[in-house]
Amino acid sequence: MKYIEQGTREFRRANLALFFGAFVTYAILYCPQPLMPVFSHEFGVSPPVASLALSLTTAVLAVSMLVTGSVSEVWGRKPIMVVALFLSSVLVIGTACSPSFGVLLFWRVLQGLVLAGLPAIAMAYLSEEIHPHYLGLAIGMYISGNSIGGMAGRIIIGTVTDYFSWRLALVVVGVCGLAASFFFWRCLPPSRHFRPRRLRVQALVHSLWQHVRNRSLLRVYLTGFLLMGSFVTLFNYITYVLVAPPFNLSQTFVGWLFIIYLVGTFSSTWMGQLEARHHRRRVLWSGVAIMLAGALITLDGHLLIKLFGVAVFTFGFFGAHSIASSWVVLLATHDKAQASALYLFFYYLGSSIAGTLGGVFWTSFGWLGVIGMISLFLVGLFGITAGLADPGRQPAGPVASRLSPPAERSV
User: Fold this and answer.
1) Burial classification of residue 149, based on how many CB atoms lie within 10 Å of its CB (0-12 exposed, 13-18 middle, 19 or more buried)
2) Which of 130, 307, 316, 298 is nearest to 227 (CA)?
């Protein structure tokens, strides 16, 4: 069967559907981030404890994706993604009714379990259905949905919280999620290259273990851990910097800060295109270097320069993440959904561990301590990825359509 190629109606439908799916997932996942100072004030919890509203969810999400990715090898890609999007939208509305911070965390744990349905499967779906020559572009466009969703969720939360309440803000996010989930269900083309298998737990565990033992894949997994750990840490605690003296910014401004994610929408697609012409490691290193420069710029005391540093950091992150994401499905020789799920397991584990660890550095050393931790993470990435090979690419055109499908390609 023919792969989906750029310029076709199916290519547009697939990318648009996954864009909206990513929008729902990341709007719900990250919407509590600008509320951390609000939670500290309303529930009387410290910054590291307040960060659990995000860190605990991403930790559960990371573990859940290992199971979801494996189950999708049996039940299929689209059905699980559709159910996950609808359920997560309903659960975020339930979170608005939380009478205490403990109950709020309970709702967030449930969301972590359900939200795994899309990110654990989306890249595997793309690798199976999209022509290999256009895979980097398709994944870049999918990740741009991540950035738009994460940005929109935070903006909605910050603005509605300022004018009404954080509870109503969560309801608004949930309703928007339901609408986007319906569009996803109607628009995403069905899987054509997916071949279901019987559920064999021992075989699935063995397959996961083979991915972890693959040294190249493990390096990419550690890359995701450090990238996401750095990114979430910066955005978790920049909110505390901005609402405190000398800036004293409003919750609305803090929410709109995340419009900076728009630069990530551009960089993820742009670097996805660059990897078709340059070695992936060079493009990845460029993204990491940009992140490091942006982090150091935020040490400046002037507000506009600090925000510029955040924008530079964000540009580098989304570009680097798009490269690492596409690298996984090209390195994996089997069970690509599992390989992608493992990448995201490390990715969100980095978010959970570093996101809360950053609170310790913030409490002890302030913003300089947070940037110091992030800088160590980013410098370490150059060493981790130094020996990674760049799998060969297939050419576009009629010949490529006769080659083996992505799931059967060797490295």
Assistant:
1) buried
2) 316
Residue-by-residue DSSP string for 126-182: HHHHB-GGGHHHHHHHHHHHHHHHHHHHHHHHHHHHHHT-HHHHHHHHHHHHHHHHH
**End-to-end CA separation in angstroms for the chain:** 23
Output the pTM of the full model: 0.73
Listed in sequence order, the residues at least 6 apart from 188 whose beta carbon sits closer than 8 Å to its beta carbon are 13, 14, 17, 18, 21, 78, 81
**How confident is the prediction along the chain (411 residues), in pLDDT tens digits per residue?**
677 777 688 888 888 888 889 888 988 998 888 888 889 889 999 888 999 999 999 899 888 887 877 777 777 788 889 999 999 999 999 999 999 999 999 999 999 999 988 887 887 788 778 877 777 778 777 877 777 787 888 888 888 988 899 999 999 999 999 999 999 998 888 877 666 666 667 766 777 778 888 888 889 999 999 999 999 999 989 988 998 899 998 878 888 888 887 887 778 777 766 766 667 788 899 999 999 999 999 999 899 999 999 999 999 998 898 888 878 877 777 777 678 778 878 988 998 899 889 999 999 999 999 999 999 999 999 999 887 776 654 444 433 333 333 332 222
- What's phi and psi for 395, nearest 5 deg? -75, 155
Element (H, E) at 109: helix 101-115
Domains defined along the chain, listed by start: 9-189+201-389 (1.20.1250.20)
How far apart CA 249 and CA 361 sit, in angstroms, is 22
- CA–CA distance, 379 with 382 (Å, rounded to integer): 6
| Nearest in space to 361 (alpha carbons), one of 346, 376, 349, 378 | 376
- Distance from C-alpha of 118 to C-alpha of 122, rounded to nearest angstrom: 6
